[in-house]
Write a structure and sequence with these properties.
The protein is about 5% helix and about 55% strand. It is mainly beta. It has a 22-stranded antiparallel beta barrel. Strands 9-15-16-13-14 form a five-stranded mixed sheet. It is globular. The relative contact order is 0.13.
C-alpha cells in the first residue's frame, strides 16, 4: 500500500474545498449555560471578546468596527457565558440580546430595537461536552507551573510519574500518553524515542492559553486516540496586549528552592489594525538535582531547559483566521540511560550516566474560515514535528520526524425537529523513526495513517446524540517487516436533561492504530532474526457515563455551582510490543489486553471573588483475567484514590490568594511480589500581588509540599531497590512585568 504523501495531502485539500459547499439551512443556536473559568485581562474590547471565544469554546464573530475604540475591565473567575459577556461589555454601550430567531446579537444600551450587524454566538461550549474539560490557565499562572507535572497538578484524572523532567510520563485515566493523541497547536507529538523521552514532555506553560483534556471517544479527535487526548494551544499576540496598546513586552524571572532553579523569560508582541499579530518568546531554566522530602536529593535530575517560540496570527479578517508558529524546546543534562534509569536510575551503582540532549522543533499552520455562516466553518491544520534525543556520551541519536495535517468543515443545520452540527474531514500523518548509531549506520522505520471521519452532534429538545465513525488506513514498518490495513471505528454518545440543569450522559467508541508503542531506539534493534508475530493493529474500546448538574444562584444570589460524576472503562487490545533485553529484540508480538476502569467526581462552587473546585479519581488497571498490573511501560498504570481541592480568592483588587490540597490513598491492588504503594497528603499555597504604584508588575509566592512530605508518585516504576521520590518542599518566588 502506498504511503500517504502528496496524494493524501491532496485528499485533505479536497475535503477543505468540499467544506465550502452549502447544502443545509442555518440552525437556531442553543444558548449554553455552563459556567466556565475565564482569565481575560483588561484592554481592547475586540481582543477581549476574541479571548472569550477561545476560553468559552463558543463561536463568536462580529464586525470589528463595533468594538473599535472600546475597552473592557477584563474578567476572571467562573461565570456562565451570558454573564461573562455582560461583564465584558459593561460600560461599552453594548449589550447581548436575543435576535428573535434563537441567536444572540449585540445591541446598543437603551436602544432595544437597534440590532448591530454581524454579531452571532453559535454552537456549544466545550464545557457542554461531558467528555472534555479544561485545565485553567489561571491555575497555571497562579501556581507558577514549570513543567508538565505542574500543568496537571490540579487534575486527578491525569497522573505524572517519573520524578525528574527528563523521565516524566503522563497517564490519563490510567492510560499512558503513548496511547493518546497529544497535540501542540495541532501538531501531534510522536512516539517515545528512548524509554520515555521525546513524547509528552517539553513545553513552556507560559505560552499556553488553553489545555484541553479529552477523555471520551469521537471520530474527529484525531488519529491514534486509543485512550483520549490532550490538546495544548499557544497564545496569540492579540491575547497579550492590554490597555489599548498596539505593542508590548513581558519579562519574567523566578527562583525555586527544591531544585535551586533559576528561570527567566521575555515575550514581545505587537498587533496591527487589530487583525495582524506577531509574538516572539524566549525562556530558560537552569536547575540542580532536586531535594526530596525529609532531606536528600534525587540524583541525575539536574539540567537546563530552553524554549524559543514565534507566532504570526491574523484573526477575524473577513471570516478568516490564520496562525503560523515555530517552536524549539530543548532539555539537556547528565541523565540515566538504562532501562531502570527511565525513572532516574535505581540502583545507582549500576546505572549508566550519560549526557543527553532532547530537542523538539515544531512548525504549524492553522487556517480557519467562518464567514458568520452556520454551514461554513472550516479548519485546516498542517504541521512538521522534529523530535530527537541525542546521547552524546555514546554518539547515538534517535529522531522522530512527522509530517501531518487535518481538514474539516462543520455544518450547522436543522432537519425536521432536530438541530445538527456535522463535522466531515480527514487527517494524515507520516512518521520517519530514525536511529543514527555509533558505528555510523542509520536505520529507518516509517509509518503512516490516513483517516477520514464523520461526526454528527444533534439535539432534539432535552436529548442530545453524537454518533460518527473513522476510517483509518495504516502502514507501518518494523525493521524488515510491515503491517498495513484499513479499519472502521464507530462511536455513539447521548445526553439527556432530566430536569433543568441535571443531565445524564453515556458514550461508547472504538479506535485503531498501526504504529505501535515501541520506542525509536528499540526499533533499530529489529532484524531478520526477530520473530514477527503481529497479526492485528492496536485497538481500544471506551465506555463512560454519568450525571452532571449545573446551576447558578443555587445557595446565594449570583453564585455558581457544578457537579459531575463519571464511571469509565477503557480496553487496550493488541498493543504492538517488542520482547527482548539489552538491545536484542527476539519477538514482535501483540501484547495482552489491559483494562482501565474507575470513576471520577468533579464539583465547583463560586461566589463573587471566591472559587473552589474539588475533583476525585479512582483508577484500576488490570489484565484480561482481572489481575492488577501496576505500572506497564508505555501502556498503563494504577493509582490510589486521588483527591484535589483547589481554591482561589481575590480579597482586594490586585491580590489573589490560593490553596491546594492533594490527597492520594494507599494503592493496595499491586502485582504479586510488589509492595503496596503508600499514599500521601500535600498542601500548597499561592499568592499574587499587583502593586498599584507599578502598573504591569506582578509579584508571586508559591509554597508546594509545605510540610516537606517524602513521597513517590504511584505511576513511577517500581524496582527492587526502591521508587524514585518526588520533590520535597518547594518555595517559588517570581515576578512578571508587562509594559
Amino acid at each position: 500500500m502506498a504511503r500517504p504523501r502528496t496524494a493524501l495531502l491532496a485528499a485533505l485539500l479536497a475535503v477543505w474545498l468540499v467544506g465550502g459547499l452549502a447544502w443545509a439551512q442555518p440552525a437556531v443556536a442553543a444558548t449554553p449555560s455552563a459556567s466556565v473559568t475565564y482569565d481575560i485581562p483588561a484592554g481592547p474590547l475586540g481582543q477581549a471578546l476574541a479571548r472569550f471565544s477561545e476560553q468559552s469554546g463558543l463561536s463568536l464573530s462580529f464586525d470589528p468596527g463595533l468594538t473599535a475604540g472600546k475597552t473592557t475591565a477584563g474578567l476572571s473567575g467562573s461565570h456562565a457565558p451570558l454573564d461573562a459577556l455582560a461583564k465584558l461589555l459593561a460600560g461599552s454601550g453594548l449589550r447581548v440580546a436575543e435576535a428573535g430567531d434563537g441567536r444572540l446579537t449585540l445591541v446598543g444600551d437603551g436602544k432595544p430595537s437597534t440590532t448591530l450587524p454581524g454579531v452571532t454566538v453559535t454552537g456549544q461550549s466545550r464545557q457542554d461536552d461531558p467528555t472534555v474539560h479544561d485545565i485553567s490557565t489561571e491555575v497555571l499562572r497562579r501556581t507558577m507551573a514549570k513543567d508538565v507535572a505542574d500543568i496537571f497538578a490540579t487534575d486527578p484524572s491525569v497522573a505524572i510519574g517519573g520524578g525528574g523532567r527528563n523521565a516524566q510520563r503522563l497517564y490519563l485515566r490510567g492510560i499512558e500518553s503513548s496511547n493518546l493523541n497529544v497535540t501542540i497547536d495541532g501538531a501531534r507529538q510522536g512516539r517515545s524515542l528512548h524509554q520515555h523521552r521525546g513524547d509528552a514532555g517539553g513545553i513552556d506553560p507560559e505560552i499556553l492559553k488553553r489545555v484541553e483534556v479529552r477523555t471520551g471517544p469521537a471520530a474527529d479527535n484525531g488519529p491514534g486516540a486509543l485512550g483520549g487526548g490532550i490538546v495544548f494551544e499557544t497564545v496569540d499576540a492579540q491575547d497579550k496586549l492590554v490597555d489599548g496598546k498596539s505593542v508590548g513586552a513581558t519579562i519574567r524571572g523566578g527562583y525555586a528552592t527544591a531544585d535551586e532553579s533559576l528561570l527567566g523569560g521575555a515575550t514581545a508582541y505587537g498587533v496591527y489594525d487589530q487583525h495582524f499579530g506577531l509574538l516572539a518568546h524566549v525562556s530558560g531554566t537552569n536547575f540542580e538535582d532536586y531535594s526530596i522530602g525529609e532531606g536528600g536529593r534525587a540524583p541525575n535530575t539536574a539540567g537546563q531547559d530552553r524554549d524559543y517560540f514565534a507566532k504570526f496570527s491574523m484573526l477575524d479578517l473577513a471570516g478568516h483566521s490564520l496562525r503560523l508558529s515555530a517552536e524549539r524546546n530543548t532539555t539537556d543534562g547528565h541523565y540515566v540511560w538504562g532501562s531502570t534509569g527511565s525513572d532516574m536510575g535505581y540502583p545507582l551503582d549500576t546505572s549508566e550516566i550519560i549526557y543527553a540532549v532532547s530537542q523538539r522543533d515544531t512548525y504549524t499552520l492553522d487556517h480557519r474560515y467562518n464567514p458568520a455562516s452556520q454551514w461554513i466553518d472550516t479548519k485546516v491544520n498542517l504541521y512538521f514535528n522534529d523530535n530527537s534525543v541525542d546521547n552524546q556520551s555514546a554518539d547515538t541519536k534517535y529522531l522522530s520526524q512527522e509530517t501531518g495535517g487535518s481538514a474539516r468543515n462543520t455544518f450547522t443545520f436543522d432537519l425536521g425537529p432536530t438541530a445538527h452540527r456535522l463535522s466531515v474531514g480527514g487527517d494524515v500523518v507520516a512518521e520517519d523513526s530514525i536511529g543514527e548509531l555509533a558505528d555510523g549506520s542509520e536505520k529507518n522505520n516509517k509509518s503512516s495513517n490516513l483517516g477520514l471521519f464523520i461526526q454528527d452532534r444533534l439535539s432534539l429538545g432535552p436529548l442530545g446524540l453524537s454518533f460518527g465513525a473513522r476510517l483509518d488506513s495504516y502502514d507501518s514498518d518494523f525493521g524488515p517487516y510491515n503491517i498495513n490495513g484499513t479499519e472502521v471505528s464507530p462511536n455513539v454518545g447521548a445526553t439527556y436533561e432530566l430536569i433543568q440543569g441535571l443531565t445524564a450522559f453515556a458514550n461508547y467508541g472504538q479506535a485503531v492504530r498501526g504504529s505501535g508503542i515501541i520506542p525509536g531506539s528499540w526499533l533499530t534493534n529489529i532484524n531478520a532474526k526477530t520473530v514477527f508475530k503481529i497479526t492485528e493493529p492496536e485497538s481500544s474500546r471506551q465506555i463512560d457515563g454519568g450525571l452532571r448538574y449545573l446551576r447558578d444562584s443555587l445557595f446565594l444570589a449570583d453564585d455558581r455551582f457544578n457537579i459531575a460524576g463519571t464511571v469509565f472503562n477503557t480496553r487496550l487490545e493488541n498493543s504492538i510490543e517488542a520482547v527482548g533485553m539489552r538491545g536484542v529484540i527476539n519477538e514482535l508480538v501483540n501484547g495482552e489486553t489491559i483494562i482501565a476502569n474507575g470513576w471520577e467526581l468533579r464539583a465547583g462552587w463560586g461566589f463573587g471573588p471566591f472559587d473552589t473546585t474539588m475533583a476525585f479519581a479512582h483508577v484500576d488497571t488490570e489484565d484480561d483475567d482481572g489481575n492488577p498490573i501496576g505500572v506497564v511501560r508505555r501502556k498503563a498504570a494504577s493509582t490510589g484514590d486521588r483527591f484535589v481541592w483547589d481554591n482561589r480568592y481575590q480579597p482586594i483588587e490586585g491580590v489573589v490568594l490560593g490553596y491546594t490540597l492533594t490527597a492520594v490513598g494507599r494503592l493496595k491492588d499491586v502485582p504479586s511480589g510488589q509492595p503496596e504503594r503508600p499514599g500521601y497528603v500535600l498542601h500548597a499555597i499561592q499568592a499574587q500581588w499587583q502593586p498599584v504604584w507599578t502598573p504591569g508588575l506582578t509579584l508571586q509566592l508559591v509554597v508546594d509540599n509545605i510540610f516537606d512530605v517524602r513521597y513517590a508518585d504511584q505511576t513511577s516504576i517500581y524496582t527492587t531497590t526502591g521508587v524514585v521520590d518526588e520533590p520535597g518542599r518547594d518555595i517559588r518566588l517570581g515576578f512578571t512585568y508587562s509594559f
